Amino acid sequence: MDAADLRLIADKKHDLLEAAQEARKLAYAPYSKFRVGAALLLKWGEIILGANMENASYGGTVCAERTAIAKAMMRSTSLSVDEAASGRKVEAGDIIAVAVASDLEGSCSPCGFCRQVIREFCSVHTRVLMVGRNWSRQSAQSATGTAPSSQQQQQQQQQVEDRQGKEFDEANVECVTLDYLLPMSFGPEDLDKPRHT
């Protein structure tokens, strides 16, 4: 996570959280009634949405975080078929933040399965921001008194210090690194380590 990534997250944090809350409205959750929305922030500022999609077989259910990651990673520039609104190809490491929103009053963290899938495509330094239904952009801005001016935003962006996710904490927002959620994780690079046969 470099300084440019941290500045981008600081600049886009409320857009990302709001996107996750909006994505939650797209959830298909007729069985659990537990709606979850996710939003990914890419290195170039684009946000990709996902929502949980349940299935009567239960095992066919896909969580919001995995839906968003699948959408992001399915982009290609090498196919002979054009997909509408496909956008720029996403590579492992291009996702710098993941926001998760649920209908709970407080935050809800990604499940273990999602944590491992996030680990597959993201750095352990990726920020995971979690909010419940009680967060809103308006409440976040009223907690600080008003929406920050563009000059205040520029000053804040220049002063983002890496504090392992805590640099983005605010009322009703919990932010941690993926490494915090999945310590001592197993990732793709582990498959390249020497093995004895």
UniProtKB/TrEMBL annotation:
Membership in a protein family: Belongs to the cytidine and deoxycytidylate deaminase family.
Name of the protein: Cytidine deaminase
Cellular component annotations (GO), alphabetically ordered: cytosol
Positions of region (Disordered): 139-167
Keyword Zinc: yes
Record lineage: Eukaryota, Fungi, Dikarya, Basidiomycota, Ustilaginomycotina
Biased composition (Low complexity): 139-159
Native source species: Pseudozyma flocculosa
Residues that coordinate or bind Zn(2+): 63, 111, 114
